[in-house]
Design brief:
The complex is a heterodimer. Chain A has 21 helices and 41 strands. Chain A is an alpha+beta fold. Chain A has six domains: 58 residues, Phenylalanyl-tRNA Synthetase, Chain B, domain 1 (2-Layer Sandwich), CATH 3.30.56.10; 111 residues, Beta Barrel (OB fold (Dihydrolipoamide Acetyltransferase, E2P)), CATH 2.40.50.140; 196 residues, Phenylalanyl-trna Synthetase, Chain B, domain 3 (Phenylalanyl-tRNA Synthetase, Chain B, domain 3); 69 residues, Phenylalanyl-tRNA Synthetase, Chain B, domain 1 (2-Layer Sandwich), CATH 3.30.56.10; 194 residues, 2-Layer Sandwich (BirA Bifunctional Protein, domain 2); 89 residues, Alpha-Beta Plaits. Classes of the chains: A alpha+beta, B alpha+beta.
Chain lengths: 788, 330
Amino acid sequence: MRVSIPWLKTFVDIKQSAAELADILTMLGLEAEMPESASFSGIIVGKVLKADKHPNADRLSLCTVSDGKEEYQVVCGAPNVAAEQIIPFAKVGAILGEDFKIKKTKIRGEVSLGMICSERELGLSDEHEGIMVLNEHAKIGSNFEDYLNSNFDYLEIDLTPNRPDCMSHVGVAREISVKTGQEMMFTHAEKRHCKKNEVDDILSVKIDDKNCCPRYVAGVVKNIKVGPSPDWMRDLLESAGQRSINNIVDISNYILLEMGHPTHIFDYDKVPSHTIGIRKAKKGECVTTLDEEKRKLTDQLVITDGKKPIAIAGVMGGLDSAVTDTTSTVLIESAYFDPITIRRGAKSLGMSTEASKRFERGADPKGVENAYWRVVDLLEEFAGGEWVPGMIDEYPKKFIQNAITLTREKIDILSGCEFSDTFITDTLSKLEIDVKNDGKNKWTCIPPSFRPDLEREVDLIEECCRVYGYDKIHSSFHYGGLYDLAEVDPEDVLSHISNTMSGLGFRQCYLNSLTDEKTAGLIGNNSVSMKNPLSASLSHLRTSLFPGLLQTVNYNIRNGNANVNLFEIGKEYNSGKEYGEVYHLTGVLHGEWLNKSVHNSERHQSIHSLKGILEALFIRLNVNAFNFAKIEHDHYDFGLSISLGKIVIGNCGKMKKSLLHNLDVDMDEIYGFDIELKPITEEMQFVKKYASIIPYPKVDRDMNFVLDQHIDTGDVTKAMKNTNSKILISVKPVDIFQHESLGENKKSVTFHLEFQSAVKTLEEAEINSAMNDITAIITKHFDAKLRD
Amino acid sequence: MTINESIASVRKSFRADLDSFPSDLREVELLRSKYFGRKGLLADLYKLLAGLSLEEKPKSGQAINALKSKLQIEFDEKVTLVNGDSQDADEKSLDLTLPGFPITNGSIHPLQQTLDEIKRIFKSVGFKVAYGPEIEDDYHNFEALNIPKHHPARDMQDTFFVEDDVVLRTHTSNVQIHLMEEQEPPLRFIVPGRVYRNEAVSYKSYCLFHQIEGLYVDKNVSMADLKGILDYFVKRFFGEGTSMRFRPSFFPFTEPSAEVDIWDKKRGKWMEILGCGMVDPNVFDNVGYDSSIWHGYAFGMGIERMTMLKYGIDDIRLFYQNDVRFLEQF
């Protein structure tokens, strides 16, 4: 919300600079910022003399702009440009932003000598719907920077939703007064008395739903003249960012910004029934609102003329009953509507207005009357109106403010400070809370009606703390460990896995867990979808980490990054009876695992480099009982399952081309693996048992078998391990040799075997015997020949 | 042939083989076993020792040993030369200025590094770490945290709905409720996790991010304690000279509430880093803690934001783009 400093100064004396004021408000909980002071080069205040349609382009205007001395032809694309407007004018040679220099150009055949600027082009805001229109008193030809600095004396306040009372200049001034001790200079408009409530004869109000509309005040002012507002009012409105329209609309806006209470002014003659009803809309009813939109209603709270809706209560008035230049009698509405009703109504219509924002946060039920009298006063003074004596005050649900007890004990515990009794009493009183201190560490408090956020003891404690100053609360530190035997961090192990992966040459990724429907269906199923997705490309939760990683490989290769080995530890999501969130470790490899260098030639990634990485990973994670088995798999050209004991925990392989194609990935040689983490992390919990180091020597032997080409080396290795030899401690293939001399479709495989006994030095005979057993089994099972 | 003749013959044969040293690795290995293998020429020489007199044995044994180690050195040098590709024999002197082998580097994502660091700081002062679901019911994400339906506070967090009353959590505060439902006070936890906001993606906001929540419940807990822990955290994370500002704010689940800023010297302004406050008594009521006895504080911070401030990163999308040129800097 924009708060005008000159306006605030009409209510409280402010000696501080704008920056200091922003700081005071921020430290009170009203986060305030100064507008960024901009400096401009070559931008002046200009006036649009003429704005005609561009002869060669429908959406462009051909304007004549004056700088007070000369006239310039300018092509402008903004829809709101019009003759007589005072505007920021960037002449040829002016510089916008960092380095955008305005030059003489030709646009669609017409010469353009400068630019009429929008707020965004000037870097003042994100507003780019149209050009910025300046106050008509601005001096033509003067420097725009000077104009800005004198007219933009305001603060932007980012209000939290609990403080509707501060959505007004009086509210903000009150906060300043509480903190600085300067007295508030504001009194409500005086309540008028009359012998007879004449308005009763010409207007009636009927509330159907007292929960939605606990109070409705109405009255009539006749013989008004619609015209411009007085200069001081226009200036204040504009300094708070509100454009002046006419005296009637301005009065309502002025009161809204002054005391925060939304009022509405109807054209009395356009409500010929002279009846106001407040009820829920019926399905199918419509009303055209002031912004000329036809609104289809469902069950919003509406104001009716007794029959049909003429306004959406607390949100926006209707066009048909609006004040126009010919209006002479007006009907004033000042009401208190239920916050939830207004919020639901506005949300259901996709609307948010200055009025609805205030009502949904909680207006002041007692301010209803004050606002009415203020409207009457201003209409009489500045619109020549004549009050029809009386006020209709339908108040079916009386507002009751409960007393709150504040105790010394609670305020001491929560604040960690020791406030004096005087400080507490004074602070709360200045906030217009009705305080009674019984002298025995207890305060009985009745908050004012404009503070719906003060309901409980803690709310009052917060008031004391923030007025005292959070910066003055001391810092207390007394931490030690809790005596607690439970696991300190169940996911600590994930960091360990990440570190290990990083050590194996992988880069960790964090990927979006939202994806599109098609991708979510490529791998895995039962995806979880959003009812209100941000876009079609982010409509589902991912069912696999693969797509994101593969696309990241693609992104990196396209951007010239070679050798991309990536992994992510993240969740996959699914919907079944319950929603599932399952941690996976997924990785992809592309390119070389060893780059070419002066020492060596390059080595490509392959299924075996991947397997080697996974073997190293498991061993480092203390997960030893893993094994691989060949599988057919939907997303691999060829692949392996990964098991832990007998449980399959994942898979790996060369990613299928069709999958890569579906994901728009250009590369076709990418290897990947995917492992569910829970079985791994559970396995990691087991404490390793130490095995004593065997003091007897290991004996190495090589065995060379000629095998049929199609026989898997892994099967032979396994068969060797499965011979009942107690002394064979390891087998691995170390060489494969193919040559026609071996015979057709034959290969020679050299296995390296290690023998060792835990109890003695092995003798040659024992080793030979074990090797003979192995030879017998292998030659028999695999139709192999031992090569010497 | 005498033993000495045999030794000389092996030496001669070795020289000849060395001159025609093969480039094929397989043949190199064959050559290796020809001399050094179990049935190789050197082994044969040792066998000859058995037939010698006790006087000759040690002398000849030493001679064979000397030959073996000499041949071994020469053989290894030759192997190195051959493996060293096309290097000229004249350049065999060791060039220490060559780069090392091209070992592939991995890296830990900056968000993980920040997360680990924040966890380390809080663990060091006795906080445990808890986790919770991302797909959450409305009650745990909102209602129990004192954010009723149709309350303007819901506008503070744009929400993704999976069902009418199931959401992608908008903060990690849902875990506060789970923790307090499951455990009796006192409590001291931090809760990291992924959270979602239905906001347009830009350089300053993403549709998801990571938070760390803190929750401390005990009998006597004050704003001063909250300020103390955050002061400690900020100094450890951003450095001892960091200025911190603690100012009033509003969150439905804390009262009083505060926001914490740190002074950014480069930008010359205060930068918000986290929201916090004293646990709202309504929250205690919702989980069945007696709010006249138990008090507590809670805080929540964005891991992305902390990382951006710490390293001077200006676009949140970089974290999810995973460009290697970005990742390799951490």
